[in-house]
Amino acid sequence: MIEIKNLSKIYKNGKHKFYALNNISLNIKSGEFLMITGRSGCGKSSLLNIIGLIDDFDSGDYFLYGQNIKQINKKQLAKTRLNQIGYIYQSFNLINELNCLDNIQLIQGYAGISKLERQKNAKSLISRVGLSKKANSYPSELSGGEQQRIAIARAISNNPKIILADEPTGNLDYNTGLEIMSLLKELNKQGITIIMVTHDRDLLSYSSRFLVMQDGIFIN
Ligand SMILES: Nc1ncnc2c1ncn2[C@@H]1O[C@H](COP(=O)(O)OP(=O)(O)O)[C@@H](O)[C@H]1O
Ligand SMILES: [Mg+2]
To answer: Atom 4, ligand 1: which residue's CA is nearest?
Structure first.
């Protein structure tokens, strides 16, 4: 599904070059729940953003479904991002001015799905994350765990094949974090490939495989 070969990401600061990712290679199969762990600053988010087609890289290759992403044009990349990948962030990234149902519908709106169908889908998604009773609430009226559930409902609204989660439990207390992990695990069982980065090694038991990063390379 995902094949990364000898990939590097460099941040330049004047003449100084900093390798956030240093010649890394990685294969991810469909159906995996892969976790990437390591200390803050080791390159986890940089890698996830490259996998998610949000950031570019400086050398190496990245194949998604066998396609070299350097050879895909911008329009097609945007379409792939929209239709194949769901994103979950540490800080939820919900729109405060929209209620939960409208937040969940956002991505389907970009994808040009009709309003009626979007509303129907959003109701079914909010029930899938167990929050039907909060449909008309605004993000500020929800707990952190509830906000993350709404963000997850939004992330799966276009039936992505892949979910990328960047420290999804980072802003949550321990038990709420575990609830979010159970929800992700359930989505993985339903067939979504999940790639999650976390500095919390206690969560690795939820993965089907994990990798440890240090200074831009994998050390296991
Ligand atoms: N836009 C940027 N410009 C310069 N340096 C950056 C930038 N983004 C990240 N870095 C640096 O790259 C390293 C890896 O960052 P990141 O991928 O965010 O790590 P992690 O997610 O593991 O905490 C860090 O040292 C960070 O300071
Ligand atoms: Mg990070």
So the answer is: 11
